[in-house]
């Protein structure tokens, strides 16, 4: 064996291809050169309307993060399903108690893979196709914001929610989904009005299956 300078470590073609794929998929994700709190700012990943992305206002993301921290309790586990802004807000260290819960983000947009092990790739078209490490009924609170206002989409996302949830569910979607949300998950509509960074044409609401403060605020 020689220890000359010629022995430059090299990556196999397979590893190199996997790395290139990772970098191309996460391009446009949060800037890793910024401070941790900037990487988790709502909007650190730009909205892409082709994926039906409409981020909450900072205030709404904070209110929803406060709600899930309160409801998850000490050491609780939170799943943010197609709701990356709430995940980001939980990680920004600005919500009291957020350091005493754990959170993951289930997302179709691989730019969020920049968040490492907290990112779980999720396509609602395959509602139960989740990694083996994601145990059934292992999340104290499941918060979901499905990409489309359709029966087909909500029915599939409801399968995922039931699979993940220990009990508490917080769904954010159009008010027109009220009847279906009740049928599928026994959810009640809250008076709390979530806001987005851009105005949406549809009336938007939160729905819960537990006695939440959001029901009457
Ligand atoms: C209406 S937005 C909800 C975002 C939320 N308002 C927030 O600020 O975090 C819908 C989300 O669904 C995700 N999405 C798009 N296509 C999807 C798919 N096939 N399966 C699961 N999620 C998808 C989008 O990336 C987006 O984050």
From TrEMBL:
A Pfam family (short name) is N6-adenineMlase
One biological process term from GO is: methylation
Identify the InterPro entries for this entry.
DNA_methylase_N6_adenine_CS, Efm5/EEF1AKMT1, Mlase_EEF1AKMT1/ZCCHC4, SAM-dependent_MTases_sf
Question: Can you state which reaction this protein catalyses?
Answer: L-lysyl-[protein] + 3 S-adenosyl-L-methionine = N(6),N(6),N(6)-trimethyl-L-lysyl-[protein] + 3 S-adenosyl-L-homocysteine + 3 H(+)
MF-aspect GO terms: nucleic acid binding; protein-lysine N-methyltransferase activity
Which key words tag this protein in UniProt? Answer: Cytoplasm, Methyltransferase, Transferase
Q: What is its EC number?
A: 2.1.1.-
Would you identify the family this protein belongs to, as annotated? Answer: Belongs to the class I-like SAM-binding methyltransferase superfamily. EFM5 family.
Name of the protein described by the UniProt record: EEF1A lysine methyltransferase 1
Lineage from the top down?
Eukaryota, Metazoa, Chordata, Craniata, Vertebrata
